[in-house]
Structure formats: C-alpha cells, structure tokens
Write a structure and sequence with these properties.
Layout: H1 2-19, H2 29-47, E1 53-56, H3 69-79, H4 85-94, E2 111-114, H5 116-125, H6 129-136, E3 143-146, E4 150-151, E5 157-167, E6 170-181, E7 184-195
Length: 196
C-alpha cells in the first residue's frame, strides 16, 4: 500500500512539473543592445534608404521628447494587433527618460547626431532655420527622433517610435511594431501618432 501511495505521489508530482511551462530566460543587456541596433538599422533603412539621416542625439517618444509616453503608447497599442504585453512594458520602462544615442552606432547607413543646442543655433539665429538646416544637411529627410526599443522576452518582437520633422508644418511620428522573420527585422504594423 505504501509503495502504491508513493508511486501515485511521484506520478502526480511529475505530471504537475511537466504541465508548468518553462519560462524563457531573461535577455541579457548585451543581447538587448545588439537587438536595438538591429531594429534601428532595419527601420531606418526601410524608411530612409540611401539617405543621410540627421538624428537627435537623445531618444524621444514624440515631438516633445518623452513627456507623454504613457498616453501616446496607450493610443498606439489600441490601434495595433498582437503586441505582447512584455513588449509594451519593456517599451514603457526603457523610455521613462531620454537616453543618449552613440555617434558610433552601426545602423547600416550614414547619420549625424544633432544636439538640442545645435538645433537651437540653427533655428534661433534667423527665421529661415529650415533653409539653414538644409544647407548644412542637403540630403537629409529632416530631423529624425527615435526611441529606445521595447522587446518581448524572445527578442523577436520590437516596438519603437520614429518621427521626422522636415519643415515648419511638415512632419509625422509613428509607433512601429517590428517582428523578426528568418533572422531579419521587418515592419509589421505602424500607427501615426502625430502629423504637422
């Protein structure tokens, strides 16, 4: 009888442990950084192929920086399908504050980082700031801001913001959901969050 009870308990314990899914390991900071650069490269090359990009040197989630990330994110997520909860949570956590971009990032195309001070110098000097901007950066599509990237645990889904202002009343910003297909990042969905 004791053997039968022990066998039954062992069987139940084995069944319970087999039914519990094994959680995915948490991605390392190095894997997230490499994934972020790969997402930046795929997104920038898809949106601005063969152009010299002028990027703000700090990350942002909208035209005003990172001030209203929660409500903008909520709006974007309501328009998208299939965003993993951990992707959205990762995006929110990684974009609580602006983060400096590195001048030596390898994103597969040429870019220039523009500081807030540089931008003020261009646009506060005279009323034709955009004329001055394009004389300095003739091949640029405008001034582009990009956020940090939120990932799911498997690092095969990514959420990122990108926005470009190209003149006083010309520009738009998007939340972009990307997915990894056959080892390469591709745009899955995008939602416009502002336009001027």
């Amino acid at each position: 009888m004791k053997k039968a009870i022990l066998f039954l308990l062992a069987f139940l314990l084995a069944a319970c442990s087999a039914a519990t899914p094994t959680p995915l390991p948490t991605p390392s900071a190095k894997a997230i950084e490499a994934g972020e650069l790969a997402v930046y490269a795929a997104l920038l090359q898809a949106m601005y192929p063969d152009q010299n990009i002028v990027l703000m040197d700090q990350t942002a989630t909208g035209p005003g920086g990172t001030g209203d990330t929660a409500s903008t994110l909520e709006y974007a997520l309501a328009q998208m399908k299939g965003v993993a909860p951990e992707t959205a949570a990762s995006f929110q956590a990684r974009n609580e504050a602006a983060f400096p971009l590195k001048a030596d990032m390898d994103v597969g195309l040429q870019f220039t980082l523009l500081s807030e001070a540089d931008m003020r110098q261009i646009f506060n000097v005279n009323q034709d700031g955009w004329g001055m901007f394009y004389s300095r950066y003739p091949d640029a599509p405008g001034i582009t801001s990009i956020s940090r990237v939120g990932f799911n645990d498997a690092l095969d889904q990514a959420l990122v913001y990108i926005g470009t202002q190209s003149h006083w009343l010309a520009g738009a910003g998007y939340f972009v959901l990307m997915k990894k297909v056959a080892g390469a990042w591709v745009i899955d969905q995008q939602v416009m969050t502002w336009i001027s």
